[in-house]
Amino acid sequence: MPETPDSRARLSAVMLTHGQWEFTARCLQSLRDDLAAGMELVLVDNGSTDGTPERARWEVDAAARLTILENHVNLGFPAGCNLGIAKAQGEFLLFLNNDLVLPRGGIARLLSHLESPPGAGLVGPRSNRVAGEQCLPSVDYDQESLEGYEECAARLASANAGRASESARLIGFCLLVRRAVIERIGGFDPIFGIGNFEDDDFCLRARLAGFRLLRAEDVLVHHFGGRTFKAAGIDRDRAVLANWEVFKEKWGLPRDRTVQRFYAQPDFDHLAFVPEDHRLPLEPQPPPLEERRAFNFLLHPRAGDPGWEQAVRDYLGAFTADDDVALLVRLGPDDGGDRILDRLAAIVAAGRPDGGASRDPTPRLVTLDLPLRPGEEMGLYRLAGAVLGGASSLPPGPKRLAEIAGCPILESGGVGALRAAAARRED
């Protein structure tokens, strides 16, 4: 495809930032020609404290199509990307980490790969530092100063002009996606929190929906790597392992499957794309609940973790049926639902006078044991005013949803703590 203003004007780049302005500036500099050619840039800032949004306004030419979305906290890569998608206008969307440098003409070459093969929906480049098959075994340039980088990228582009290979997965550090893919499968799943495996999840849903994934053999993108995790003070190795558990739970992989064994296409051959299960709305909505109240506590009990029982007792002791509150008890498929429901009924009965013989009403308590649609789980945490039971009692996925939704987790319960939480929401 020729490198023309018309082609790049159909493209929106979504870049996430969290500090590390030095790297963001270098990435923006490498995008100048593409911005001048009409590419839109949506910069989603996840709580930078180094003046990144204002500096970006100065760095980018005033005539460029620039939108900056500022979040006061780090929403993570998936939720941040979804905000950018909702704002972007392009027919194609290019998701970028901020610690990249792109070669001259690289974006035009990426676009060309999506325009020719039928069914191609996603394409990613080769790189010096990236997981999986996109990583080159060696590169002939200085990876700190970038001396010789453009020449190395040009040699790769010449030797592999127009070549692209089928791929089973692409990494989200630099990922070009057709808008049609988003319309079909939705956005990234915020259950993956700060990041890791949200791109695997996205690619898997895209493949199930019938889109092809391509690796551009003629584009070399330099990746400094891991800068956002470093800026946030996050142990990346631990984050990878934690989200591997979330990915396995979501896609039904064996619990003893290690990240070293990873996954392969046969793990998912039995699956078909089901929009109700696999399409992630950009703006999550809570499930329809007629029982919601002015203040809603959320509890995610698990068999073998007795902490949730005290949380229920505290709730029953803190409120009456006259209070405009509800306790939403979320039961997952592997949480021991029947045993928990039996135990829950016994706790409620014991909380009444005469050991349950009395029919005095109790504060509203709702059990949610039905499967929720994609996005409704996140919406549930946005609906809740507080999560009971403490962070240690939450599975990894729900814990991340609570953090991203800004839903406080009450580490220490007690009647007073619950009443205080409801009172703060009313204020």
In a nutshell, what does this entry contain?
Helices cover 37% and strands 18% of the residues.
Overview of the structural elements:
- The protein has 427 residues and is of the alpha/beta class.
- It is 37% helix and 18% strand.
- It contains 17 helices and 13 strands.
- The chain has helices at residues 5-9, 21-30, 32-36, 52-59, 77-87, 106-115, 149-159, 179-185, 198-208, 227-231, 236-251, 275-278, 307-318, 337-350, 376-383, 396-405, 415-426, and strands at residues 11-17, 40-46, 65-71, 92-96, 100-101, 120-127, 164-166, 174-178, 212-223, 295-299, 325-330, 364-368, 386-388.
- The strands form 2 sheets. Strands 1, 2, 3, 4, 5, 6, 7, 8 and 9 form a 9-stranded mixed sheet that branches. Strands 12-11-10-13 form a 4-stranded parallel sheet.
- Strand 10 (295-299), helix 13 and strand 11 (325-330) form a beta-alpha-beta unit.
- Helix 2 runs parallel beside helix 4 and helix 13 (307-318) packs parallel to helix 14.
- The longest helix is centred in the middle third of the chain and has 16 residues, at 236-251.
- The radius of gyration is 24 Å and the shape is elongated.
- Residues 1-5 and 353-359 have low confidence and may be disordered.
